[in-house]
Design a protein that fits this description.
Layout (H helix, E strand, L loop, with lengths): L2 E8 L2 H14 L1 H4 L6 E6 L2 E7 H12 L3 H19 L12 H31 L7 H11 L3 H21 L11 H10 L5 H9 E6 L6 E4 H11 L9 E3 L1 E4 L2 E8 L12 E5 L15 E4 L7 H9 L3 E3 L4 H4 L5 E5 L4 E6 L3
Parallel strand pairs: 8-9, 9-10, 10-11
Antiparallel strand pairs: 1-3, 2-3, 2-4, 4-5, 6-13, 7-11, 8-12, 12-13
Helix pairs in contact: 1-5, 3-5, 4-5, 4-6, 5-8
Length: 349
């Protein structure tokens, strides 16, 4: 089996799992087809995911056959689902709720959360197979509105910590460890008081791997077994090159120093730098006003980096796959977003 790297980003484990389940189960209701193969690793707060190359290529080719009306309907669904998700931000004084009420809130939340992510990511996939000239201004406006609102980030910062703190207080478990629990485990804890072993959550915090093959049961592995499965499936990439190629998201030509962003804590000192990241998201936006350009591993014309670069009118290249592996902080590069090329002029010492 040949796997291709797809994402690398900072994300809590609970959300990581919800995203994966959403991809495996909830694409079909939107485009008629689910993904059946998934390899995902969560290590020290960073999630890495791979797709089976043959399935992923087939998936993108299928999207090319879809009419723009389907793309537009997905954007409309995303807007509605986002409104449903925002409702959970209204939950404040959770100590007033019984365990049964908390269970109802949580099961409703998980259902919406897992349905939300396929809708949020499908526009990005469509953007990888569509040409910007194919999109009407009405669709571009909907895209900007739908992808420009990412309330899941507020959920991660506001709702989940509050909810897990309440559960932790009631069930005598460290609330920060609940970010490494799976939805069903939390449901069992609330419903039947079935304890979650903190040592298991601690192991997951270090390293956990999820593997789903042909739509079968997802294997969950930690420690040495996880590393063994990863080593047997993923070949180590060689990144010795001074040349990076991707897709043009917004044209322009600029020279500047690299600012590598792998975690939210890296979002500082971005002015007059070329931002290089696995992807950008809404939380990047306040920091991007004075950057020279953007380069990402992921994305197409509908990703956040593409949208924000067009708004700021700065050069942007997306979908390089490996820019964060090749470039380092303070490398001097030429970002040629007329031709989709990044050239390293001077390596940092």
């Amino acid at each position: 089996m040949e796997w291709t790297k797809f994402t690398e980003r900072e994300c809590d484990l609970f959300t990581t799992y919800c995203i994966m389940i959403g991809y495996l189960k909830n694409y079909k209701k939107n485009i008629g087809k689910n993904l059946k193969n998934f390899l995902m690793m969560h290590e020290n707060g960073i999630v890495h995911s791979w797709r089976l190359k043959s399935e992923y290529d087939e998936f993108l080719n299928e999207l090319k056959t879809k009419k723009l009306e389907i793309f537009e309907k997905i954007l409309d669904k995303l807007k509605k689902q986002n409104e449903r998700l925002k409702k959970f931000l209204e939950c404040k004084k959770l100590d007033n709720f019984t365990d049964k009420q908390l269970l109802k809130i949580f099961t409703d939340f998980v259902n919406i959360y897992q349905n939300y992510f396929p809708l949020f990511t499908l526009p990005k996939y469509f953007g990888m197979v569509l040409n910007e000239n194919d999109l009407s201004q009405a669709i571009k406006d909907k895209l900007r509105e739908a992808r420009g609102i990412a309330d899941y980030e507020k959920i991660q910062k506001d709702f989940l910590p509050l909810f897990f703190q309440e559960i932790g207080k009631r069930k005598k478990i460290k609330s920060d460890l609940l970010f490494y629990a799976l939805p069903d485990e939390i449901i069992d804890l609330l419903k039947d008081n079935k304890k979650i072993k903190e040592n298991i959550l601690g192991e997951r915090k270090k390293l956990i791997l999820f593997l789903t093959v042909n739509g079968g049961k997802t294997k969950i592995l930690t420690g040495a077994k996880a590393k063994q499965i990863l080593k047997s499936n993923i070949k180590e990439e060689k990144n010795q090159t001074d040349f990076i190629k991707g897709s043009v998201a917004n044209k322009g030509l600029i020279k500047g120093r690299v600012r590598l962003i792998l975690r939210e804590s890296d979002l500082n000192n971005l002015d007059n730098k070329i931002v290089v990241a696995p992807m950008t998201s809404i939380k990047f936006t306040p920091y991007l006003k004075n950057v020279l350009g953007i380069v990402t591993n992921e994305g197409g014309i509908a990703c956040h980096a593409a949208i924000i670069s067009r708004e700021l009118n700065i050069p942007c290249i997306v979908g390089t796959k490996n820019a964060t592996k090749i470039l380092q902080n303070n490398d001097l590069v030429e970002l040629d977003a007329n031709n989709g090329i990044v050239k390293i002029i001077e390596r940092t010492k």
